Amino acid sequence: MGRKWNNIKDKKAGKDAANSRIYAKFGREIYVAAKSGEPNPESNRALKTVLERAKTYSVPKHIIEKAIDKAKGGGDEQFDELRYEGFGVAGTMVIVDALTNNVNRTASEVRAAFGKNGGNMGVSGSAAHMFQNTAVFGIEGKSEDEILEILMEADLDMRDIMDEEGTIIVYVEPEQFHATQEAFKGAGIEDFTVAELTMLPMTDVALTGDDLVKFEKMIDALEDLEDVQRVYHNADLGE
């Protein structure tokens, strides 16, 4: 089930840090989550989840506070949560999650990002059935046995566990995200290299040569769109 989380995350963080787009995306996501309920992560699970994920990407505190303050102040900006599905080269499948205040603009931009890079948008459900909603955690400084013991003591199941260059990657059921996180924190684990809900592909498609170049260009084009929050795919990029 592994997707080489460390390499993927490091590559994306390095790319986004240069233009700060990741901070803008988190600001929008935090604002929407805070406005959907109480602007307090202890009583708003959606907000708590995005804040934990923001922490793993080192989002500055002032970005987080600004977004929450905007929600507290009754900001009137409205965003729709949208999901697009499509296909890339060699039968690859892609899921795009967006937050937008202009549905027509976002749909047009996503369609163009697919079409200009050898892909095409599909209908709802055309790709998502090949992905599995999963919670994933990355933990340093612990062994697999220690992590397994923590999960067993908390009576929590897991889907998979693996060691990625010294970081333990744990996959659990999505509905157990918060319970698992609390179990880890109860065991003294406060920092995670990964702590998020994601969509993992059931099968991977290996890409090489021109197909790999074209696919990466398409993913970059999608991730660079202002309204796009997350992009999932089933390509094995060899990272």
UniProtKB/TrEMBL annotation:
Q: Where in or outside the cell?
A: Cytoplasm
Provide an example Pfam family for this protein: Transcrip_reg
* Record domain TACO1/YebC-like N-terminal: where: 3-74
Record's protein name = Probable transcriptional regulatory protein B857_01869
Keywords of this protein's UniProt record, alphabetized?
Cytoplasm, DNA-binding, Transcription, Transcription regulation
Instruction: Name the InterPro entries on file.
Output: Integrase-like_N, TACO1_YebC-like_2nd/3rd_dom, TACO1_YebC_N, Transcrip_reg_TACO1-like, Transcrip_reg_TACO1-like_dom3, Transcrip_reg_TACO1_YeeN, YebC-like
Q: Which Gene3D superfamilies match?
A: 1.10.10.200, 3.30.70.980
Question: GO MF annotations for this entry?
Answer: DNA binding
Higher taxonomy = Bacteria, Bacillati, Bacillota, Bacilli, Bacillales
- Which SUPFAM superfamilies does the entry mention? YebC-like
Q: Which GO terms describe its cellular component?
A: cytosol
Organism in which the protein naturally occurs: Solibacillus isronensis B3W22
Q: Which residues form the TACO1/YebC-like second and third domain?
A: 80-235
Any one Gene Ontology biological process term? regulation of DNA-templated transcription
Family of the protein in this entry: Belongs to the TACO1 family. YeeN subfamily.
